[in-house]
Amino acid sequence: MKSWQCVVILVVTSLIGCSTNTGGTEAAARIHFDSEFKKWMAGQENTVSTMQSRIGALKEPISYDIRSVVSGSPDSLACQDADKLPEDWRSWPAFKMNVAIEWKSKTGRPMTNITTYLLTWNTSEKRWYVTERH
Q1: pLDDT tens digit string along 16-43?
Q2: CA-closest candidate to residue 127, choices 36, 50, 53
Q3: 82, 98, 102, 111: which could join 67 in a potential S-S bond, CB 3.0 to 4.6 Å?
């Protein structure tokens, strides 16, 4: 009986730990950005590839460094359906990130570009939206 109770306690504890929603915090924004950037570096679909890289057909970046993170104004396009934008969208957490992205140039030397991103947490959809800013 005791071992059964221990198993139940472990399962319940792990479920509670896994379901904790950390969305909307700076830490969660960094985790989301890191995950998406690693996908980009691996050549997978992602939400952080830059317009310049897509237009210029650049290879995947070789590294990145988040230089700064500050609170930002949420993006009104951070939703699946712009016609159903919730009234509280102006209160959504948002973070502006300045990121140094390192690439290999055509000559094989590293080059660095600074790109600014806005990450907006849509509280209704429980997901991050990433927008490149200029």
Answers
A1: 344 344 689 999 999 999 999 999 999 9
A2: 36
A3: 98
Q: Are 93 and 121 in contact (CB under 8 A)?
A: yes
113, 23 contact by CB (below 8 A) = no
**Residue written as token pair 């057909």:** 57
43-52 long-range CB contacts below 8 Å, 24 or more apart?
47/128, 47/129, 47/130, 48/117, 48/130, 48/132, 50/101, 50/113, 50/115, 50/132, 51/132, 52/113
Lookup result for tokens 């896994």: 18
What's the confidence (pLDDT) of residue 50?
A: 87
| DSSP codes joined into one string, 48-76 | ---HHHHHTTPPPPSEEEEEEEEE-PPPT
What is the per-residue pLDDT across 45-85, written as a single tens digit (0 to 9) for each? 999 998 888 877 778 899 999 999 999 999 999 999 878 89
Locate 86 and state its tokens.
Answer: 């919730």
How far, in Å, CA of 120 to CA of 26, rounded?
10
